[in-house]
Amino acid sequence: MTSDERAYDRRRLGQWLTREARADGIDRRHLLKLLAAAGAVTGATAAGAPGAAAAVPATGPDPAPGILKPLPADRFTVHGTNAETRWPALRGTGYHTPNGLFFVRNHTVTPALDAGDWSLRVWGGGLRGGEAAFGLDDLRALPVTERSAFVECAGNGRSFFTSQQGETVSGTSWSLGAIGVARWRGVRLAEVLRRAGLRGDAVDVLPRGLDAEYSSGGVALGRVRRPLPVAKALDDVLLAYEMNGEPLPPDHGHPVRLVVPSWVGIASIKWVGDIETSTRPLYSPWNTDLYRLFGPTYPAEGSAPLTRQTVKSAFELEPNATFAARATHRLTGRSWSGGGSVRRVEISTDGGAAWRRARLHDTPRPGSWVRWSAEWTPTASGPAELLARATDSAGSTQPERTVFNEQGYLFGAVVRHPVTVAP
Ligand SMILES: Nc1nc2c(c(=O)[nH]1)N[C@H]1C(S)=C(S)[C@@H](COP(=O)(O)O)O[C@H]1N2
Ligand SMILES: [Mo]
Description:
Radius of gyration: 21 Å
Bound molecules: the ligand Nc1nc2c(c(=O)[nH]1)N[C@H]1C(S)=C(S)[C@@H](COP(=O)(O)O)O[C@H]1N2, molybdenum atom
Structural class: alpha+beta
Helix content: 10-25%
């Protein structure tokens, strides 16, 4: 499927450049400059210890304007309108991230939507006939699908571009906590598109959120929306109305959101209100100026729009945690990949010189994570670094460095977790 996606994007980009496709008057360079000016993570803000994820100082009495659920400091680190899950808080919580611990990434604020009034409008030139509308009860009456999947921000791990690689990138300074795995229940998007009368030659769908219009650096980008190629839309995408057995919470898209397994979180549009369908490629700032890779090693127009997530691993551990020497400790963590299931996890307790296998506690599945553990009996006291690296079923292993991109997406390198061994 990867090569199909590339071929598809080349075709689409060609059409865009020759103005066959709608581009909504986007000027990439202009937007990028404005975005960098508005939300730059400078070396200074991201320079804290790995894992410390120095929060953007709150500007008002509310530490995360627009997030409705409680954000206790031992569970979340707040970054502006976003809240990052703290990894130590996941230890012992089970396979699925509890809803109260799941990270929140909001472009603006969580909207108050009434499930009774809500409906999903499916429209556009990609339909054989006129538009279709589905209320929540209509969706609930359709065949039910349930699956576990992560939602992970494309910028997860971004702060390590700066703290490990000394590079300046723009965007929210996430540590590794912009990910959660939930059991999602809903209806396949394919089922809804089929009932709406999707044409065989449709190429893109464009789901759009009901949250407020987003502007960045004074430029109005409109409502959050990102085109999704039909091949993915008809594959494993869900319109989810339940998260871990509860109605979707307000902050996570109530009453209905998309869940696009294995792909960057931006694809999983929350509070979805309408889906445009098209036989021509569609564009929005979220697949042109944002969520592509830009930088010296990428083409001027950027990489293809981001799709799958990279391989990552995290310890369920405080940064700078202290361990007693000569006692045996159980290290725990989780690894995941958008490229397949996790095949192997290795850990190093000596800064990367020696590696050994961690024990996996779950059957690895694509689009989800696996919990792991390893015993450690430190001998020498003083500072140490713990490393974990995973390999997925496609054969990708976490590298030592991630190639720079301006917006700090898809950090996948091994993260060095500092700890102290007490005598
Ligand atoms: N409508 C809408 N959908 C959205 C967003 C948003 O701000 N508005 N944020 C996106 C991004 S960037 C991510 S990473 C995920 C985060 O989902 P969560 O807040 O449920 O963890 O939602 C995506 N869907
Ligand atoms: Mo995101």
